[in-house]
Structures are given as C-alpha cells and as structure tokens.
Specification:
- This protein is α/β, with parallel strands linked by helices.
- The protein has a single domain, classed as P-loop containing nucleotide triphosphate hydrolases (Rossmann fold), CATH 3.40.50.300.
- Helices cover about 55% and strands about 15% of the residues.
- A 5-stranded parallel beta sheet has the order 2-3-1-4-5, sandwiched between helices.
- Helix 2 crosses helix 3.
- The protein starts with a strand and ends with a helix.
Length: about 180
C-alpha cells in the first residue's frame, strides 16, 4: 500500500491533486476536512475554519500531534489500497506517516491572490470570508512552536514533491504527472 499525503496553503489546489489521483491512478481518498466536519457536527458547533482549527488542535492536544492522521491511516490500512490522506498540517503527522513506510508528501502552493479567487469560486461553507480574513487564517496556520497546532510551512518544507499551482488545472496535472511519473 502506498500513502500520499497532501499539504499546502489554503486554496492552492490540493483537492484537484486528490481528484486526479483518485480518478486516474485509483487512489482512495481520506479527508481530514471531512473527519473534522463530522467531529464538529457531533459537538454541535458551526462548521467553519475556526471550528475546524479549534477541534483539530484540541484532538491533537488530547491525544497526539498525529491523532487525526493516525485515525485515517488505520482506516486506509484496513483496505490495503493505495491512499491519499489530505490535508497534512503538522510535522508530527508527517513523522507518523513516514514511520508507516511507503509514504510521499506532496505540497501545493500558489500566490495568495490566486488562491483567494479559487476559494471564492468553490463556495465552501468555510470559505465565505474576505481577503484579510483569508490571509489572517493562513498566517495562524503557517508557523507555530506548538506541536499540536498547524504548521503548514514546516510541512511544505518537508515535502518530497512541491507543485507551484499559479497556472491552469492542466499545468497542475502536468506537473503532477512529471513529478510523480503517474
């Protein structure tokens, strides 16, 4: 079983990478976002980025920095099929997945203005924000010394493959094909 982890900035194109690998390479997708939405709903909270961050950080603090990813990995391992786990947010999650073997991390990034336009188009319930809030959310998740909180920059820095997604969807897919040899 191969595991690909996906990390990257908000609205960078992580979902497009996932969609391609699911449809074209037969990977099974496991979503941290979906896992957190289920946890948020159980707790009766509003589904938004603040709730997602709060619940994720609380779960990591209560259990381990890799708790959420570990839960998804165990489900993936029971299927024994190649899997994509989206979205890696802490170095502890990377450490855990690397310890499981046969793991690669893909980071996706793009300019903030490009990413903001993308999130506005996808119209997710967590994306109904202005540009300043978008930047503030990202800053909050980018760097920390708390191992239980999001540290996107550390994750991006540790990626095996980095994709610059400032172009078209076709450009993104071509980079993915070239770098993964899919």
């Amino acid at each position: 079983m191969k595991i690909i982890g996906i990390t990257g900035t908000l609205g960078a194109g992580k979902g497009t990478v996932v969609d391609y690998l699911v449809k074209e390479a037969g990977y099974v997708h496991y979503s941290v976002r979906q896992y957190l939405i289920e946890q948020i709903q159980v707790q009766g909270l509003e589904v938004n980025r603040d709730s997602m961050t709060q619940v994720a950080n609380a779960l990591r603090a209560k259990h381990t920095p890799h708790y959420i990813i570990g839960e998804l990995f165990q489900i993936a391992a029971s299927s024994a099929k190649d899997a994509i786990i989206e979205s890696i947010r802490t170095p502890g999650e990377i450490d855990y997945l690397q310890s499981q073997g046969n793991f690669s991390l893909i980071a996706v990034d793009a300019k903030p203005e490009v990413r903001y336009q993308r999130i506005k188009l996808r119209q997710s319930s967590t994306d109904q924000i202005d540009f300043d809030t978008f930047l503030a959310n990202e800053k909050r998740e980018m760097i920390t010394t708390d191992r239980n909180k999001q540290n996107l920059q550390a994750c991006i820095d540790r990626a095996d493959i980095t994709i610059d997604n400032n172009g078209t969807r076709e450009d993104l897919i071509q980079q993915l094909k070239d770098k993964l040899e899919v």
